[in-house]
Amino acid sequence: MVRVVAIAIEGLTKIFDDGTVAVDNLDLTVASGEFMVLLGPTGCGKSTLLRLVAGLDAPTRGRVTIDGEPVDENTPRHHRIAMVFHDYALYPHLTVAQNIGFPLRAGAHDPPEVAQRIAESARHLGIADLLNRLPAHLSGGQRQKVAMARAIVRRPEVLLLDEPLSNVDAGVRAELRAEIADLADRLEVTTLYVTHDQAEAMTMADRVAVLRKGVLQQAGPPEVVYADPETVFVAAFIGVPRPALLEAAIYADAGSVVLDLGEQALTLPPDDPRTAGLAARHTERVTVALRADALSVVDAPTPGTVTLRGEVRRVENLGHEAIVHLDTGGVGTSDAFSHLELPEPGRLPAPPPDAPPPPLMQRLARLIPHQRTEPPAPTARTPYGFYPVYDGELPGEPLPAGEVAVRVPVAHRPRPGDTLTLAVDLDRLLLFDRAGDRIRIDEHRIEEGLDNYS
Ligand SMILES: Nc1ncnc2c1ncn2[C@@H]1O[C@H](COP(=O)(O)OP(=O)(O)OP(=O)(O)O)[C@@H](O)[C@H]1O
C-alpha cells in the first residue's frame, strides 16, 4: 500500500538571532501513520525541528506541510497536532480527569462527550482508575501517561513527542516505550518522537532520522541505520557497545589490498569485489568502524579469513554473554577526524581545518606522489599505517590505542592479558572517508567501471 505523506519538511533551516544554525537545510517526509524517531546528541536541533513542525516557531527558510497544508506561526494550535513534552506540564490543582479534558474546554463539545472522550483517552493509557487523583499523587510514569492521554483527547492526526520518557524511572521507561509505540499504532496517528536515547529509537521507530548539528545524516528503518550507516557519525552513535573507530591507510599492490591499521594490517582476499573497489583508493586514509558483531573469536587464522590479533584489556560479564575489550595496537580516530565532536553550546563550530577538498582536488591529490618508498619498507610504518600522515593532520597528543570489542559466551571468557585472534566479517566492515562519509565499495566499483568506458 502506498502511504500518504503526512508531514513534508522541505529545505528547512532555523538560524536563531545570535547566529546559531539549529536546523540546516533539512528535508524529511513522514508517511501517514508512521512512527518517526528523531535521534541525535544534545543540541543537534531535535526540539527546534519539532517546534517548527508544530508551527510554534517560524523557520528562517524552507517549509513544513501537513497533508499538503503549510504549517506556520499563525497556526500554533493547529487542531490536528498534539505535542507532549518531557516535563509533563500537568496542572497541579486539577485532577487527572480535568487535566486530560483540558484541551476540550474551549471546544464545541457537550459535557457527556467530554466525559466520554476523557474516559476513552484514559482507557487507551490504562489509567482509568486514576481519574480523580491530583498529579502530586502520581508516579512519574503515571504523570507521563496523563500527559499522553491529554494529547490524544482531541484525536490528533499528528503527535509530536519531545523526550517524553526522560523524566521517567529507567525501570518504567522500557514498559512505556512499548505502550506509546503500540498506542500510536492503534490510533494510526503520524508520530514524530524526539530522543537522544538510541535504545528508544531502535525499539520504537518505524524509521529513525539521525541528526547531527542540525543536519540530517540518515533516515531509515532501525536495522538499516544500524547495519548500513551513511556516515561515521551514524555508525558511532548507534549500537552497543559503540563500534571501534580506527585509523587506517589503504595500500593496494598487485591485486591485493591491505587495510593498514599500524601495528597490524587486514589483508583483503584478492579477487574479491570489495578488494577491487578499494584498490582505486590506494594511499587514502580512512576510518574503519568495527562493531562487536563484525568480529568473532577464532582459534587461529585460517586461509581466506581476515583476522586481527588483540590483547584482552577488560572483560564485562553481562551474565548471558561477556563483552571483551581488546587492544589491537590500532590508533583510535580522534573526534576532529571522525566528525563526532558535539557542538559547543549555542553555536556551531567552524568547519574542521581538514575539511575534505572538492572532488576534483581529491582526484588530483591521488596523482601527486607522496613521500614514501615503494614497496613500503617496514621502517616507513607509522602508527597510522604504511604511509606517513600527511602534513598538518597529526594531533599534538598521541591518540589512545584503538580498542575493539567482541562478544563471547560467558563460559569461554578470556582473562585480561590473553591474546585472541579475531575473524573480521568483511560484510560488516564499515569504511569512511576523511569527510566522515561512507565508502561504498560496490558503488565505487561501478563508478570506476564507468570511467573505464568513458
Ligand atoms: N532561542 C534560541 N536562541 C539561540 N540558540 C538556541 C535557541 N534555542 C535553541 N538554541 C540552540 O540551537 C541548537 C539546537 O537546540 P535544540 O534544543 O533544538 O537541540 P536538541 O537536539 O533538542 O537538544 P536537547 O536534546 O538537549 O534538547 C543548540 O545549539 C541550542 O543551544
Automatic annotation (TrEMBL):
Residues 346-355 have a biased composition (Pro residues). Keywords: ATP-binding, Nucleotide-binding, Transport. It comes from the Bacteria. Residues 7-238 form the ABC transporter domain. One of its GO terms (molecular function) is ATP hydrolysis activity. InterPro entries: AAA+_ATPase (IPR003593), ABC_transporter-like_ATP-bd (IPR003439), ABC_transporter-like_CS (IPR017871), ABC_transpr_MalK/UgpC-like (IPR047641), Mo/tungstate-bd_C_term_dom (IPR008995), P-loop_NTPase (IPR027417). SUPFAM superfamilies: MOP-like, P-loop containing nucleoside triphosphate hydrolases. Residues 334-355 are annotated as: Disordered. GO terms for cellular component: ATP-binding cassette (ABC) transporter complex, substrate-binding subunit-containing. This is ABC transporter domain-containing protein. The lineage of its organism: Bacteria, Bacillati, Actinomycetota, Actinomycetes, Micromonosporales.
